[in-house]
Amino acid sequence: MITVSNLSKRFVVNRRKSGLKQAAKSLFHREREFIQALDNISFTIPDGQVVGYIGPNGAGKSTTVKILSGILTPDSGECDINGRTPWKQRREHVAEIGVVFGQRSQLWWDVPVGDSFDLLRDIYRVPEKRYRANVAEMTERLQLESLLRTPARQLSLGQRMRCEIAASLLHDPKVLFLDEPTIGLDAVSKLAVRDFIREINRDRRVTVILTTHDMQDIEALAQRILLIGKGKVLLDGTLEQLKQEYGRGSVTVSYSAGETQTLSGLEIVEQEMGRLTVATNGTREDTARVIAQLTGTLTITDISVKGPDAEEMVVSLYRKYQV
Amino acid sequence: MKLYAKFFSMHLRSVMQYKTSFFLMAIGQFITAFSAFLSVWFLFDKFHQVDGFTFQQVLLCFSVTLMSFSLCEGFFRGFDTFSSMVRNREFDRVLLRPRNEIFLVLAGKIELSKIGRLFQAFLVLLYAVPASGVEWNLQRVLMLVFMLLGGVCVFCGLFLLYAAICFFTVEGLEFMNIFTDGGREFGSYPMGIYGDGILRFFTFVVPLACFQYWPLLYLLEKSDSLWCMLSPLVCIAFLLPCWALWRFGVRHYQSTGS
Fold first, then answer.
1. Model's pTM, two decimal places?
2. Tens of pLDDT, residues B117-128
3. I need a labelling partner for B177 at 20 to 30 A (CA). Which of A136, A241, A295, B252 fits?
4. pLDDT at position B258, please?
């Protein structure tokens, strides 16, 4: 159980104009600016949930993850993860979480991955039996057999990411933080990583907090979405709820005969010779209503239905909240 | 300690991936340190005594300083290069492990190629110990051990201080090298030869003199004051404020970027 209440964090940024002269000037006189990275954030996450934590760059996602994982101390606010405050009982806390940063590695560059795993076992004091079982399970699920004997520097990004995720699960964490786990991966690796996260969540009841810009990750994994922008929680709900509220779909038909003027109550997006696109709110009922009306009036030769697109939805959300 | 051994073996295995590079580095380290030795030697070619110390006695001082410095540089490398650890966010990773941060930074970087310098210091010490004219007894041997220990403490403290400052500036401060690398160069000679002002500074502010000049006076029976005997303890105490500043820094760690 993760409870966050009224978390705030402010950073001091020293600004200066570009150029050598300005750089010299800034040696003596610094313009300070405060950035409110987090502004009174509150939420609760029950055990075993997969939460997609989304927001544009600079919204405060990483800051939240860093605070929840005990790296940073917030200016004010409370946070309780399984009965502990991360920044106060850091060592006890981090023993129970796993963190994957998509853009940084925790594996040793020059030694085989298996050796890195062994070292992690010793750092986390994982019992030998538990460790063996975990490595065997990861190896099977992520197909790591040959990778374990390869130095990390010789792995492809997809292979490395699989090893990274395995490495963060060796000590049976209760909470897993994934910071852009699929960034830069090819389609096959992305799917493998997603499937694995889903399995781990299902089989081990690991709470997963996933920050990503890839909406397919969110669609595939997140049971709940937290949208953050300018340091505030803007939206909290399931993807379905979001779709209902903000999703938009459309129905496009090609027709050979009929009058479009007689159509009423439909929002026409685009119309050209023999082709018509009508907007829907994305739900099945609305789509059915639109199709019924269209087929009633026009002689249709071709029809295509487009559902709500997560990517577009997020763009319209960002626009709505101006973040 | 067992975990440290594991880390050590990881470093060894990493280094062995680039054997040639490692040996060249170690030889390079040896040669660099050798030039410092030569400069002492050439000096004594012209003057036979410096402030009452003979060549061999200065070498004793030289080797103690060099040895403690290279021990620190090898095993405290993580703090020496701490600014890069903060900048590339490696330190985030350190904070994500359920272990002491100082231990993890310490174990996270071990610069084995410094063995070249250490080896040199060892050779010089081997020569200087019998040649310095010290009448060795148990107390004096113990004193030598404490000098080395004190030296390690002072340099470690300086590295720790340097690392603590990185928490606030992100960039490392080059002026700190005056005390670390500079301290090594200065420390080639007994601190007393630089005059009272500098001696006082290196006794009360940065206690470099406390592990070489003062105890050396005791070893050579130039002074038998209690202060000279106890001065290496000051070096050990020097760690305390450095450690406190480090703790303060960790609590104010800001991390960088996304």
1. 0.84
2. 999 999 999 999
3. B252
4. 46
**B122: helix, coil or strand?**
helix
Q: How many CA atoms lie within 13 A of A320 on its CB side?
A: 14
Give the count of beta carbons closer than 10 Å to the beta carbon of residue A292: 10
- The residue of A85, A91, A169 whose CB has the most chain B CBs within 10 angstroms, and thus the best one to mutate to test that interface, is A91
* ipTM, two decimals: 0.84
The pLDDT score that the predictor gives to residue B105 is 93
Q: What is the pLDDT of residue B180?
A: 82
| B99 in A contact zone (CB under 8 Å) | yes
232-251 in chain B: CB under 8 A from chain A: 251
Q: Is the pLDDT confidence value at A14 over 80? A: no
Residue spans of the domains in chain A: they are 2-6+40-243, 248-307
Type of residue at B58: V
**Residue A244 in contact with residue A282, Cβ under 8 Å?**
yes
- Cβ pair B236, B155 in contact under 8 A: no
Answer whether B255 sits within 8 Å of A71, measured CB to CB. Answer: yes
Residue A320 pLDDT: 82
Q: For residue B135, give the H/E element and its range.
A: none
User: Model confidence over B236-253: pLDDT tens digits?
Assistant: 999 999 999 999 988 888
CA dist A57 and A273 (Å) reads: 42
Note the pLDDT tens digit of each residue in B163-214: 888 888 766 567 777 888 888 888 888 888 888 898 998 888 889 899 989 9
CA-closest candidate to residue A139, choices A179, A182, A196: A196
Facing A95 at nearest CB: one of B93, B98, B100 = B98
Q: Which residues contact A133 (CB under 8 A, 6 or more apart)?
A: none
- Does CATH place domain A2-6+40-243 in 3.40.50.720? no
Using a CB–CB cutoff of 8 Å, tell me whether B46 touches chain A. no
The beta-carbon neighbor of A104 closest among B2, B14, B89 is: B89
Is residue A260 pLDDT above 80, yes or no?
no
Across the interface, whether the CB atoms of B98 and A115 are under 8 A apart is answered no
CATH no. for A248-307: 3.30.70
Query: Taking Cα atoms as reference points, which of B66, B149, B83, B81 lies closest to residue B111?
Result: B81
Question: How many angstroms separate the CA atoms of B141 and B224, rounded?
Answer: 16
| Interface A:B, Cβ pairs < 8 A | 66
Interface contact B34, partner A, CB < 8 A = no
| Inter-residue contact A247 to A284 (CB < 8 Å) | no
Residue of chain B minimizing CA distance to A120: B97
**Cα–Cα distance, B223 to B232 (Å, whole number):** 15
Per-domain residue ranges of chain B? 26-34+51-251
